[in-house]
């Protein structure tokens, strides 16, 4: 169980770093989707993956109890 928690925590940290990278790629002077489409998609995908990892980790905890 500790190995699984460690793996999920490592993936969460990696996704957080990727999320911060994509947040720095957004052009805040021009917030249109056309200008920042790849940055918006990067932020959306990395945040959704980190949310999914946290939900899976919570489901594993409940299943073990």
Description:
The chain has 65 residues and is mainly α. It has one domain (2-60). Helices cover 86% and strands 0% of the residues. The chain is built from 2 helices and no strands. The longest helix has 32 residues, at 33-64. It is elongated, with a radius of gyration of 15 Å. The relative contact order is 0.16. The model has no long low-confidence stretch (mean pLDDT 88).
Q: Which regions have little confidence, pLDDT < 50, spanning 5+ residues?
A: none
Principal-axes shape call: elongated
Query: What class do helices, strands and sheet pairing give?
Result: mainly alpha
> How confident is the prediction overall: mean pLDDT?
88
Distance between the termini: 12 Å
Question: How many structural domains are formed by the residues?
Answer: 1
Please report the total strand number as a whole number.
Answer: 0
SSE order, one letter for each helix or strand: HH
Tell me the major beta sheet: none
Keywords:
single chain, mainly alpha
The gist of it:
With 65 residues, this protein is mainly α. It has helices at 2-25, 33-64.
Q: Could you outline the blueprint of secondary structure elements for this entry?
A:
Elements: H1 2-25, H2 33-64
Helix pairs in contact: 1-2
């Amino acid at each position: 169980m500790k190995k699984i928690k460690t793996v999920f925590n490592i993936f969460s940290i990696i996704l957080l770093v990727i999320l911060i990278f994509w947040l720095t790629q957004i052009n805040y002077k021009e917030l249109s989707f056309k200008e920042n489409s790849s940055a918006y998609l990067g932020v959306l995908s990395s945040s959704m993956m980190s949310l999914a990892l946290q939900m899976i980790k919570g489901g594993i905890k409940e299943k073990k109890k």
